[in-house]
Amino acid sequence: MRVAVFSTKPYDRRFLDGANPSAGHELVYLEPRLTRETAIAAAGAQAVCVFVNDELQKEVLEALAGQGVRLVALRCAGFNNVDLSAARDLAITVARVPEYSPRAVAEHTVALILTLNRKTHRAYARIREGNFALEGLLGFDLHGRTVGVVGTGRIGAAFAQIMIGFGCRVVAHDPYPDSECERLGVRYLDLPELLNGADIISLHCPLTPETYHLIGSSAVAQMRSGAMLINTSRGAVIDTRAVIEGLKSGRIGSLGLDVYEEEADLFFENLSDSLIHDDVFARLLTFPNVLITGHQAFFTEEALSAIAETTIANISAFEQTGQVVHAVSIERLA
Ligand code: NAD
Question: Of 3.30.70.120, 3.30.450.20, 3.40.190.10, 3.40.50.720, which CATH number belongs to 2-100+301-333?
């Protein structure tokens, strides 16, 4: 099958080429993101393969369908960037990679926590300048602290398990509690209770209309003073402006982000010679207690290889049977 692969980076090519030989699909690698303007580049393809910041709203899907595209193969778990009802109406099948390496994201979340807490990023810079002073580097023991996990699906559960290993008390909020988490001692609470009791709050729920700006000004006001907030899920789960106010007031003691609401114009590109026009993002960068990574939590050898294999399996299954292995559809969500 001819597949237009949007947002291609050298690592995507390496791993997809590694998984494709036995399937033999014709993968056409395209560097641009999929948008209304770039959809034309999929001409001649029966499938598009896309990532987190590609745009698959109604008009883009209409343009793709008009060119003969019948399959959208997401090479990620989240599907908040796809208009699923438009896809159904246009008879476009949508596939995703529901699980590749939950531990990759969970471990990166822990990296953000450890770095923010023990300030190893600041220590690294200081030591290289011959500054061996400890002022400003004071952290706290994780052992005995309360960690609040919002969303205990694959990633949240893996993260909870690691934090239990650190000796933390783990509480969680999820409309569907996980029995394995409960067995490990995780206690489920409603969101205000979790926000009020946690020293560290980590977000692992998907972005849906219900979770859009879940952490806004009222949630910030319910947090324990000085709490650490971590988001490795999707940017818009947080209202960034409200969180900035929380940082200014000290209610939020530190913030770790791997995702950002407006990341599509920033992340995955080298912009070091450009001006950043996003003033909200620029404000975040001014805080010494904010640590941002550019949507790299998934970025491990194991995850990239699993993503490529599942993506190729979805495309092959569609070619052979008209069905994919991991479908996403509006009916399944209902
Ligand atoms: P999952 O579907 O296994 O788990 C999501 C969990 O969130 C489910 O248990 C669900 O019940 C729960 N949930 C839904 N609505 C909720 C709400 N309002 N409050 C609390 N919990 C709620 O998904 P996953 O594989 O664990 O991934 C979680 C999210 O992580 C994805 O949706 C994606 O956005 C993000 N993600 C980020 C990266 C990255 O590189 N930063 C990589 C993969 C996934």
Answer: 3.40.50.720
